[in-house]
Structures are given as structure tokens and as C-alpha cells.
Amino acid sequence: MSLVYQCEKNITVHIDQKRFEQVMINLLDNALKYADQGSTVSIDARAKKNNIVIIVSDAGRGIPEEDLPHIFERFYRVDKSRSRTSGGTGLGLAIAKKIVEAHGGSIYAASEYGKGTNMIITLPEG
User: Fold this and answer.
1) Residue 96: which CATH number?
2) Are 121 and 106 in contact (CB under 8 A)?
3) Rounded Cα–Cα distance for residues 27 and 117 (Å)
4) pLDDT, block means (10 residues), the chain with 126 residues
5) What is the rounded distance in angstroms from the CA atom of residue 42 to the CA atom of residue 30?
6) pLDDT of residue 108
7) Domain range for 18
8) Which sign does the torsion angle of CA 26, 110, 62, 6 carry?
9) pLDDT confidence of residue 80
């Protein structure tokens, strides 16, 4: 598996670095966990209309359409067979959403089951 990072030069965003690091670790952990072996996980950051858009993408199994509206809910897990001991508490994306929103931003997922997921964060530039 490979990790590709692309970031526009000279973009600025004011964030609590420690808390935002928690967001990125969670998104990357999920992407790496669900990406197909031998595929690429990518991070892309760029300025767009007074915002910074960060996209974490994987080419994994994707998220079923019926689960997408719920993935940012506390304790929600797409894979119901996973237990806390085998991976996660179902809190990671809920926490990530709270942190992003506390920074004046938004986060959502675009996914096609069987093809992968894009986690898209938008933050105010500056």
C-alpha cells in the first residue's frame, strides 16, 4: 500500500494543531484499515474559494449508501461484526466531526460501495 500526499504551497489555516492531528490520524487510520491491499491512500489539500479543502481518499470497499448518513454518529459502525477489541469504538468520526466544526469547518463522506471513499474537510482559509 502507498500513501500519496499533495498540498498546494502557501495555504494557511488557523487550527489547534493537536486536535486537528487527531482528525487526520482517525481519517488515515480508517483509510488504511479499509483500503485494498496494494492500493493507494491519498491526502490532497488545496485552496478553493476562501476555504481549504482536504480530501483523504482510499480505494477500499467503500461505504454502503444506507450507512453514509450515519457514519458521523457516536458509536455507529458500518461493519457490525467488529467489536471494540477487534477495532474501534465507533467514536472516531463523531469526534473528527466535532473538531472540524469547532474550527468553523465541515466534513462529509463521498463513497461508492466497492470502489472507495473520499473524506472531505472544508475549513475557512486564513
Assistant:
1) 3.30.565.10
2) yes
3) 11
4) 92 94 96 90 96 96 93 85 59 96 98 95 94
5) 12
6) 98
7) 2-124
8) negative
9) 60
